[in-house]
Specification:
heterodimer; A: alpha/beta; 5 strands; about 55% helix; about 15% strand; globular; B: mainly beta; 2 helices; about 45% strand
Amino acid sequence: MSTIRILFNALLVVLIITGLTVSSAQACVGKTLVVGALDNPQQQVLAEMLSVLIGERTGTTVKVVSVAGHAEAHDAMIRAEMDMYVEYTGVGQVIILKEQPIADSDELYKAVKERYNQDLNLVWLKPFGFSDERYAPEGTVAVAAPVVRKDTLKKFPALARLINKLGGSIDDPTMKELETASAAGNSRDVARKFLKEKRFI
Amino acid sequence: MISLLRIRLALVVAVLCLLSSCTLGAPALKLEDSVIEGKVIWSGEVHIDGIVTVKKTGHLTIEPGTRVLFEARDKDGDGIGDAELLVEGALIARGAEDAPIIFTSAAEQPKASDWKYLYLDFAREAELDYVISEYAYSGLQVHFCRARVTNSIFRYNVDGLRFSTVSLYAAGNRIYGNRHGLRYEERGSEARLHHNDIRDNEIGIFVVTRSDDKARIEQNNITNNSQYNVKLGWQQPGGVTLPNNWWGISDPVAIQKTFFDRQFDDNLGVVSAPQVLTKAVKLSDWQKHEGATP
């Protein structure tokens, strides 16, 4: 009996030490977060904004990758190749979930948020504060918001609260300005300048 | 007569060959993924292309003037080089003022993150003196152990010197040209840092999280960091006190403006800098203060 207890305790110690070693090693460079962006100035500047905000406030390494389209971005999220990207409510409802259009903006956001959370383990965070008709399938609106994998939020529990600071901070005219600047120059610099001016970083 | 000349010539050539081989030293040591157990001494040039681990039973001594070159290879595509030196046993790296030990990138055009880090993790013993660590993700990371770092340079890294949960003594070091000069998560650390230059980084000191204001960071020059001299991470609600340092200026209000803290975000603690020094500390004086309370 005592031999079994000694073996059990030894195993426990080994497991604790192994766990400590692994957790400390992971904490030291950590997982690199991946943000997806479609190939247009709006998506690029918003992805860089998420990347700079997360990187500078938490010290986590964040990488921005290009994706061909909404469906490809969604697939990459499901395959855990990306941690987050910016999606539009109308696209989520009609193109991704293949549901009927909803005209009311709040109702639409609520509907996609619920379905993504329940069926896809993806979380819609607070909308940025602008909508863009170019991304709205017929009969819907296109409110932009960060969509993040639920697993990622479990690994980085403070992430949702941090990203939600951007909620409501970009209205339609501001987005147009950012997009124009992003098209003319470096998206990361544009994003950083915006975050600095708003005292987010 | 001619044959005598030939013999003499051959002798001269032989002596020259011998001399040149002595001068050039041993060929560079090349290491891929490997472990060090028992006593090992490095000198000359060491190339690392993978993870070299000094195991608990290992004791690595690095001689003055040694150059350790890490290959800039990023197999997993995370933007951070894969090569590293991980120390779980003992590391004694004592360089000299005129012969520092250099940890650097092997790339022709080196950049930050070319290699991962020099990482002390549960190390039995760690002493670095007159070391230069550059172009890494972290010039030096120290976790769960006791370490002494003096007279060294940490430059052109993402994190110059980074620690958590340690007993760290760091004095007489120059930390510049990094994204974060000094980065730490205190987590009960007994860190004492004095007579260091923490300058010309983007962020001078980045206090990421879980710090209870116990690290003693006094009598340093913390100046000219382009974004902030001190920044609190997203999850650092507690205050951080940094007394008796030189900030490059003496006006307390101007100094406060170089901190990213509750002024920017209600969730963060407050950085305070009491007893501001009126002139820069001389790094070479660090030994006079070694045992003293600053």
